Amino acid sequence: MAGETRASLLRVAGLKKSFTTPQGRLAILKGVDLELDVGSSLALMGESGSGKSTLLHLIAGLDDADEGEIFLDDVAVTRLPDFGRAALRRETLAVVFQQFNLIPSLTIRANVAFQARLAGRLDPVWREELVGRLGLENLMERYPEQLSGGQQQRVAIARALAPRPRLLLADEPTGNLDEATADDFIKLTTEVVAATGCAFLMITHSKRLAARLERQVTLSSGVIKEL
Amino acid sequence: MSVRHILFILVAVLAPLIRTASFADGFAGLGDEAKGFAVVTAGTPIIFPRDFGAHPGFRTEWWYLTANLEDSSGASYGIQWTLFRQASAPGKERKGWANQNVWMGHAAVTSGTEHLFAETFARGGVGQAGVTAEPFAAWIDDWRFATRDDAPGAGLARMTVSANGADFRYTLDLAAEGSIVLHGKDGFSLKSDDGRASYYFSQPFFKVDGVLVIRGREVKVSGLGWMDREWSSQPLTATEKGWDWFSLHFSNGEKLMVFRLRDETTRGFSAGTWIGADGTPQALDRDDSVLKPLSEMTLAGRILPGRWRLQVRSHGLDIETTMVNPDSWMATRFSYWEGPIGFRGTHQGKGYLEMTGY
Amino acid sequence: MTQAFWTFIALVSHWRRHPVNFGALFVGLAIATALWSGVQALNEHARASYDRAASIFGAGGARSIVPTRGGSVSQDLFVKLRLAGWKVSPVLEGTVRIHGKRFRLIGIEPVTLPREAGVAVVAGEGALGAFLKPPGRMIVTPETLRELSAAESVAIVIDGGKTLPPIEALAAALPGALVVDIGVAQAVLNRPEQISRLIFKEPPSAVAPPLATVAGDALRLVPPREEESDIRRLTESFHLNLTAFGLLACLVGFFIVHAAFGLAFEQRLAMVRTMRAVGVSARTLIVAMLGELALLALVAGSAGVGAGYLLAAALLPDMAASLDGLYGARVAGQLALDPMWWISGLGIAVIGSLVAAGGGLFKAFYLPVLMAAQPFAWRQVQQKFLWRRSVLGALGIAAFLVAHFYGKGLYAAFGMIAGLLLGAALLLPLLLDGVLRLGEKYASQPLAQWFWADCRQQLPGLSLALMALLLALSTNVGVGAMVEGFRKTFTQWLDERLVAEVYFEVAGNAETQQIEAWLEKRPEVSAILPMSKIKIRLGGWPVDIVGMKPHETYRNHFPMLSETGDAWGELQRGEGALVSEQLARRLDLALGSTLDVPAADGQWRVRIAGIFPDYGNPKGQLRIDIDRLMRLWPETPRMGYSLRTAPKAVPELIDALQTEFGQQISQISDQAAIKNLSMRIFERTFAVTAALNLLTLLVAGIALLANFLTLGNVRLAQLAPVWAVGVSRMRLAQLEFLRVLLLAAVTSAFALPLGLALAWQLVAVVNVQAFGWRLPFHVFPAQLGQTVALALLTAAAAAIWPIIRFVRITPAALAKVFANER
Asked: Residue C712: CA atoms inside 13 Å, Cβ hemisphere, count?
């Protein structure tokens, strides 16, 4: 565990979740325990269908757990009602998906500002800095469909970090990108994330990319294993 | 009774004819409208029974009865019965709906606590309203003021009067105990310094008996009545704003009619007739009488005089009047105050007061 | 609030990228609002006119006293009543002709007129004096002034030579009436010292004797609201018809809104998911969506209400003409609407769009944040969709059946139609799916198989537009069949009914014996058929009793629905009466049943010897022998005559009659002119219906077009793979066109029987309920063919632009579909 002095940001304890499938009930998470400190980064790996996305969704308050607890800054995410979770997503954490990250009818400028505006804390200086670091200066008046996949994901990161969240969740953000673009993207993202002091939890299939983060864990048979 | 009604009826019935008409603006231009109507001239004899009837050649005239009554307990009442005629055009009276006369009736009953009134209108020429001289009858709708059927040929000496409204009605018998009185100079009654005038006579000697019905309650009453007949064609001057008119019965049998026309620019015009107990009239000089309001009251959003001081120097009269019911406001289409009064001072008796233009 | 605002901005930004979809939504909303509020404007306006017409005699609770036996009475009765303490005001009503046009002349007495009523006719300073002073004034509305083709202050000369007073136009005057002083009216109408009505507001004085004591039985106190309710009742069915049409058209408009909003919802699923993921709560999302919807509804609704006003203004003249022709109800020619109308129009837009979009909003609220934003597996969705629609459809049909067997009255009849139409419309996708399944089953070629399968895949997206088309088409068939059927029946009936060559009416004071004697001496007149009429009430309904001569002419020609063997003999003997279909239905009379009629001296019992059709007459009619009528009501004047003569002699006879009797003959006309007039009233009555009919079809066309356009991009993704495997764009375009025509053709095939069912409903149920007469049911094959052609044309017109767009698309654009799937 890196950084003994750091305080805990996220704590997942005994988390269980199962789904109903045509073949009967299928337990995906069978008691997940996980901790993440303030400002640290973690790569979550595992086979397809192992429940990585489910875990991330639960942390983001996008789905309900069957059992167990998730604490974010000592707030019990699992016990929040819908609007409380929405506030959490606006203000405390940010999510980046593999696709459908951007609002197609808004310009890049409006997309970057969107979440910060929702949270009511748009800081133009910080936004400009993000835009500069992510190399989006010349794309601001375009629409998402006019951007390449890598550019779109950089916009998504900018949008996610604009409100200065405490935790960034990313669900295979490089899934649709070629290797070189993915490398660039991860490098840039980890740099920016580090600069903001935000914790970073990323799902990825790629050990190479996972290695760029401070910690790596695998979700397998419904439980977390440290690597 | 005086010029008041000329003004009154013009406003009441044919106000729309006069586009600019309002009290504030005066009645400029009305002088022209009198063209073609018969003119009131001094020295024209008043002839009965002809002059009991209507005078179609003149623009306006009225038959006006007021009475001071008492019930068996001594409570005071007053009644009013009025029929106005106004012609919209001079010339021979036309037949049927083409007739140029419009008639208006006002009736009221006043007690110490109530003042009930009604008004009604009629076109001439069809029989809904009219006046015949011999036998005398004046009517509009089912309101009637006429020589009694059982005294044909009695003229004004034996009469009956009836009227009704939503909450009241009355039927009264009238018996004249004195002669008819001509005002002014043999009935030629001057109304302004510049010679406007009317023909004017009264029968102030009626003894009245009958029944009032007030909100379904029958009251047997008796008392004294006063009838006025007046006709003219000439309107008032532009600056005359209204008038105050008194008819008084004194306990010694004498009577007094006195009025003042209020004028903004001059001191106004006042005149009157002192009537002896035998019916002998004596026209009062315009400086002989003084009419002075002593108090004010607010009624229907207007400020009116309440008590009056009346003086007639030539007869040593100095009295102060009180209203039987201060709330005697005639809220008819064109409104005014009219009601019974009492008085004390050098003389005793009762009478009627009318105040317009407030 | 910030959240809701930025969410709203993001939602709205969608439309900038999808202008066509937005256009469809906007137009749909605007059209629905326009049709609804247009029809409501017509109804409101007509009702306001009736109220104004009734208000001169009924304002503020005024009551009327009318001559017991109709017509007029001496004004002495007015004076007698006044002198007895009744506060009545006299009125004389009559008709004058100006350049051949009829106008209602009303003579009033402004001095005694109750104040509220007086204001309506004589307003403004100086007006009373001018009104009374010769030559007086004639007060009309500005519209009537235009109808008279005259200017203010002009004194019009009526046909017959008399001069009316100078005109004064007042907006608040009585629609369609010429108001003059009663003295003027008596002179102009040639009825000196006569009055036709007394009105009063103040009750008679406490000592006033009863009406009968003063006037005997000459006058009758009209029960409160009798006349107002008469005109309202008579016209109610007309307005209900209009409302039903407006509602139908409005419904079709909301179909568009529903479709467009549904599509927008699907298109915005991904956006909604993203927004939810970055912290928009479900509540905020709904608030923003509601805000968007409300704003749209207000803007499009305002446009719609404006368009509705224009629509109403365009249809008003026809409606006014038919109301006048059918019911004698005058409607002012200038639309004047109160603010409530505007507000209610917007209300309809807001409520309608909420209902139309409600499903989407509901889904958005309960949408799990993680729901896949991919398009649904279409087959599964379609099955669910078909199932749900079909259940609703079955419910609609069930409602129809319930209304059919248990319902009564006009509302039930319209309920039936609504159930039938909606049920059939909702079942349409299932039926179409069945037809396409059959096609798929029997197709062997791969392209053909794809074609059928693709058609099925298109169903959910197109079904709403196709349902709208079905509704529009079946309405077209139904109303068309009814109008055509009516025209056929009506023409035939007119031919039979109008057999005499000359018709004339006489004035109230005419010396009819002289006229008859004069006619007897004319060799060219082969038959003189006098007619008398009195107005009574039977079962609270206004009924005319018409006295006629049971002449050969009638025996041979008078159209009957059913009659006893010796109907005319019974009539002649004074034992029998002919009753109009309306009256028979209302009083439940059949051949042989007896009827008690209140006559001048007691009840008169008569047997029903025949039932005759009396199309278009809002009143009931009872026809009896004229001599009998004269014995029962001795005072009844002759009203008019029909003359049999050689057609060649007609113009000369008319001239001679007019020269000889002048004013005594109030109206004279030959057969052709009367037929002409009747047909003209008929045409105008259905002009409004026809216009709404056409508009409904137009809306359906717009719905289809909007659908094709909005589906354009999705369609591209579906066509690109077929293109990629080697089918040319032209071939694909042809197949697209064929697909549209196929769907339209199948839809119209369903529309025909539905339309005929609707037509049957209209002639056999609605008409009977609304007007009291039933029309024979006719099928017009040519009209049906025309409707199918119209359907194909509408669909083709709607499809052609999107298809041309497809043909013009570059291969690169098609290839791009594969590059970025969605």
From this structure: 20
Residue positions counted in chain C: 822
Q: How many CB atoms lie within 10 A of CB B348?
A: 13
Chain C CB within 8 Å of residue B102 CB: yes
Alpha-carbon gap, residue C763 to C774, rounded angstroms: 6
Share of chain B above pLDDT 90, in %: 68
Domains of chain C by residue range: 1-61+229-374, 70-217, 498-671
The DSSP element (H or E) to which A226 belongs, if any, is strand A223-226
Helix or strand or coil: residue B91?
Answer: coil
Q: What is residue C3's predicted lDDT score, i.e. its pLDDT?
A: 82
Interface of A with C (CB under 8 A): 57, 60, 62-63, 82-83, 85-91, 94-95, 97, 100-106, 110, 114-115, 117-120, 143, 145, 159-160
Q: What is the pLDDT of residues C757-799, one digit of tens each?
A: 888 887 888 778 777 777 778 888 888 888 888 888 888 887 8
Name residue C83's amino acid: L
**What amino acid occupies position C767?**
N
Considering only CA atoms, which of B228, B145, B147, B144 is closest in space to residue B180?
B228
- Which residues, at least 6 apart from A3, have a Cβ–Cβ distance to it below 8 Å? A37, A39, A40
Q: How big, in percent rounded to 5, are the helix, strand and coil portions of chain A?
A: 35, 30, 35
> Which residues are within 8 A (CB) of B28 and not within 5 positions of it... i.e. 6 or more apart?
B20, B238
Name which of B272, B58, B257 is nearest B184 in CA terms: B272
From the centroid of its chain, how far is CA B153? 25
Q: What tens digit of pLDDT does each residue of A124-163 get?
A: 888 888 898 888 889 999 988 888 888 888 899 889 888 8
DSSP H or E run through B218: strand B217-232
Pairing of strands B308-312, B317-323: antiparallel
Query: What is each CA distance from B341 to B67, B80, B213, B248, B337, in whole angstroms?
Result: 11, 13, 21, 9, 12
Q: C194 touching B, CB under 8 A? A: no
8 A C-beta contact, residue A72 and residue A58: no
How far is B52 from B49, CA to CA, in rounded Å?
A: 5
Question: Percent of chain B at pLDDT above 70?
Answer: 88
What does the alpha-carbon distance between residue C315 and residue C688 come to, in Å, rounded to a whole number? Answer: 6
Give the whole-angstrom CA distance, residue C164 versus residue C152: 12
Q: Is the peptide bond before B135 cis (omega within 30 degrees of 0)?
A: yes
Q: Which residues of A touch C15 (CB under 8 A)?
A: 105
CATH code of the region B4-355:
2.40.370.10
* Residue-averaged pLDDT of chain C: 80
Longest Cα–Cα distance in chain B: 54
Half-sphere exposure of C715 (CA within 13 A, CB side): 23
Say whether C665 sits in a helix, a strand or coil.
strand
- Domains in chain A, please, with CATH? 8-226 (3.40.50.300)
Are the CB atoms for C597 and C545 separated by under 8 Å? yes
Give residue B145's pLDDT band: very low, low, confident or very high (50, 70, 90).
very high
| φ and ψ at residue C610, rounded to 5 degrees | -165, 155
Which chain C positions have a beta carbon within 8 Å of A82's beta carbon?
281-283
CA C352 – CA C247 distance, rounded (Å): 11
CB contact under 8 A, A117 and C2: yes
Query: How do the domains of chain B map onto residue ranges?
Result: 4-355
Res. C372 pLDDT band, cuts 50 70 90:
very low
Buried b (16+ CB within 10 A) or exposed e, C747-772: bbebbbebbbbbbbbbbebbbbbbbb
Q: And the tokens for C65?
A: 């006293």
Lowest mean pLDDT among A7-11, C111-115, C344-348, C772-776: C772-776
- ipTM of the complex model: 0.90
- Is residue A68 predicted with pLDDT exceeding 50? yes
